[in-house]
Design goal:
The chain is mostly beta strands and about 230 residues long. It is built from no helices and 18 strands. The protein starts with 12 loop residues before the first strand and ends in a 20-residue tail after the last strand.
């Protein structure tokens, strides 16, 4: 292989599942970020999403969870969609309000407002709107006619985590991403391991899985540095 033709892959850690979150809460293995500056935790919900699951993070000083305490975070991402419309009323939609489909009953949070579409973060009911249904803004009172059923469901939208947690939605085929930077950890206190916790999704089958992918290594090496050392996954 010629120099420069290499494909450099970082380690990837399976944190959760794939599994049914309604069978109980899940605590992932501890993952070391001692050799990395950052990482992203990806959570995926499959084609069964009967209930929500609370997401939290922990930090510790080693892979045994010594000194475990909350890892605070305020930002996460999830996949949104574009919702095109026609015939908007004189009133315009507003960022952060809830828009509701008059026929489908779907609801979503408005992230961005353009002249012919909204970027939204789905809340309830799914992501397939009814074309020509009336869209109504819960705060602005704005109305418009849906032009299509929604599209571009891979675009990321930034969300705010309240009190270091958020709930996955009871909506199928959604992903969530939590960026972690080493500055979020209590490095001065020796905390360089992270763990993902996902709460019990009650009695409704909810398919979930989660992975962690580290980002920039602290030192450049050809061979990727492991984040799990001698830990086994079973």
């Amino acid at each position: 292989m010629k120099y420069g033709d290499e494909t450099i892959l970082h380690p990837m850690v399976m944190l959760v599942g794939p599994e049914d979150a309604s069978e109980g809460a899940s605590a992932s293995p501890w993952v070391s970020l001692a050799d990395y500056r950052d990482a992203i935790i990806w959570i995926m919900v499959g084609d069964l999403a009967g209930a929500t699951s609370a997401v939290t993070l922990d930090q510790a000083t080693d892979s045994s969870g010594t000194g475990s305490k909350t890892l605070s975070f305020t930002k996460y991402y999830k996949n949104g969609q574009r919702l095109f419309f026609t015939g908007r009323s004189a009133a315009n939609f507003q960022v952060d309000e809830t828009v509701t489909g008059g026929t489908s009953g779907l609801t979503a949070t408005v992230i961005r407002v353009s002249s012919d579409h909204l970027v939204v973060a789905p809340l309830t009911g799914g992501t397939t709107w009814t074309t020509t249904e009336t869209l109504t803004g819960g705060t602005s009172g704005a109305t418009a006619s849906a032009n299509g059923t929604g599209q571009d469901e891979d675009i990321p939208v930034e969300m705010t985590a309240g009190s270091d947690t958020f709930n996955t939605l009871a909506v199928t085929f959604k992903w969530y991403a939590i960026p972690i930077n080493s500055s979020m950890l209590d490095v001065a206190g020796g905390f360089d391991h992270v763990q993902l916790d996902m709460g019990d999704a009650a009695a409704s089958e909810t398919q979930v899985c989660a992975i962690l992918i580290p980002g920039a290594p602290r030192q450049s090496t050809y061979q990727a540095v492991s984040t799990v050392s001698t830990q086994k996954f079973a």
